[in-house]
Amino acid sequence: MRRAVLEEPPTEWEKWHTQHCLNYVRQMILCESNLRLEQVKDSPVGLKADGLGLEHTCRDWSILYDIAEENSKHWPEGLYP
Q1: For the stretch 30-60, what's the b/e string if a residue is b when 16 or more beta carbons lie within 10 angstroms of its beta carbon?
Q2: What pLDDT, in 10s, does the model give residues 13-49?
Q3: Is the residue at 14 inside a domain?
């Protein structure tokens, strides 16, 4: 994933896969996490985990975003882009 962030993936499939993995990490951070692992399934291309059908309940982060935005109004001009 580090390489995919630093260098553009060479194929469309790798671009999709990188986006999928980064979105998965984002969801694990922002959503209600648990210790459940994805089930490994047999597929035509070998064993893999897809996570399809697993439900997670996401938290409402809008209040935190609103507070952070209000707080940033008090920062000195030009400190952050």
Answers
A1: eeeeeeeeeeeeeeeeeeeeeeeeeeeeeee
A2: 888 888 888 888 877 777 766 666 667 777 777 766 6
A3: yes
CA-wise closest residue to 9 among 1, 51, 59: 1
Could you tell me the pTM of the whole model? 0.45
Residue ranges making up the domain that contains 12: 1-33
Q: How far is residue 14's CA from residue 17's CA, in Å, rounded to a whole number?
A: 5
Residue 53 within any structural domain of the chain: no
Q: What are the E-state strand segments in 1-81?
A: 40-43, 46-49
Q: List, in order, residues 6 or more apart from 1 with CB less than 8 Å away.
A: 18, 21, 22, 25
The number of folded domains in the chain is 1
Q: Which helix (H) or strand (E) covers residue 62, if one does?
A: helix 62-72
**Residue 56 counted as domain residue:** no
Phi then psi for residue 3, to 5 deg, are -60, -40
